[in-house]
UniProtKB/TrEMBL annotation:
This is MIP family channel protein. The keyword Signal does not apply. PROSITE patterns: MIP. The chain crosses the membrane at residues 28-52, 64-86, 116-135, 141-162, 174-193, 218-239. It is found in: Membrane. It is a multi-pass membrane protein. GO terms for cellular component: membrane. It holds the Pfam family MIP. Its main location: membrane. Keywords: Membrane, Transmembrane, Transmembrane helix, Transport. GO terms for molecular function: channel activity. The lineage of its organism: Bacteria, Bacillati, Actinomycetota, Actinomycetes, Micrococcales. Belongs to the MIP/aquaporin (TC 1.A.8) family.
């Protein structure tokens, strides 16, 4: 007797009655989020992970960095993930040059170009500003603020992509790919800062065997990922209007 091949489906939201055309605010917010993701991932990787720890007198102390290939990988992953998560809403430009080029080619309305460019500039500046705040620390000596910020932002990005990729407008069967690559891109930025939690359960499990210092810091790796996840849920609700 033939046996059925059982495949666990990717959980998705049921389709909702709504216009097939995304709202103008949805499109602009998607461009802000996507451009933030792109800039945060590539600039953060270049700043914290390209060469880590830093060099001393021209000699690499410990060549654990991802190098130029890693930075390029972070950019490619960010663009792909952004296209999965936000492309169905805004088209996934994340770049003023792309919006202008599409408009010249007749593939994008000129009336939308100024709004898209403004949204992209806002998202890019927000991403760069986040990295700037994180860079106030140094490898091995980052502040609590840096750890809090990277946990909130990286977890928020991850949960946002999960919500978008598994939504009715999302990536469908390709959602696990988008989610996995998002986690990769976020780890490229966050591991050098605080070893990257993004998951309170993982942090709790490892802290149990890490001793008193680890347990004393555990609260931060529970609270800040939760804050990021809640913020992601709020953003997702905004994109469902």
């Amino acid at each position: 007797m033939a046996t059925a091949h059982i495949v666990a489906p990717v959980p998705t939201e049921p389709p909702r009655a709504r216009s097939t055309e995304p709202h103008a605010i949805d499109r602009l917010l998607a461009e802000v989020c996507g451009t933030f993701l792109l800039v945060f991932a590539v600039v953060g990787t270049a700043t914290f992970s390209a060469v880590f720890p830093a060099t001393a007198e021209g000699a690499v102390i410990n060549p654990l960095g991802v190098g130029l290939v890693g930075v390029a990988l972070a950019l490619g992953l960010a663009v792909m993930v952004g296209a999965f998560a936000f492309g169905p809403i805004s088209g996934g430009h994340f770049n003023p040059a792309v919006s202008l080029g599409l408009a010249v080619a007749g593939r994008f309305e000129w009336s939308r170009v100024p709004g898209y460019v403004a949204a992209q500039v806002i998202g890019a500046c927000a991403g760069a500003s986040t990295v700037f705040v994180l860079a106030a620390g140094s490898p091995g000596a980052f502040s609590l603020l840096a750890a809090a910020l990277v946990e909130v932002v990286a977890t928020g990005v991850l949960v946002t992509v999960i919500l978008r990729a598994t939504s009715a407008r999302g990536a469908g069967p390709l959602a696990p790919i988008a989610i996995g690559f998002t986690l990769t891109a976020m780890l490229l930025v966050s591991i050098p800062i605080d070893n990257a939690s993004l998951n309170p359960a993982r942090s709790l499990a490892t802290a149990l065997y890490g001793g008193g210092d680890w347990l004393a810091q555990l609260w931060a790796f529970v609270v800040f990922p939760v804050v990021g996840a809640v913020a992601a849920g709020a953003i997702h609700r905004l994109l469902r209007r």
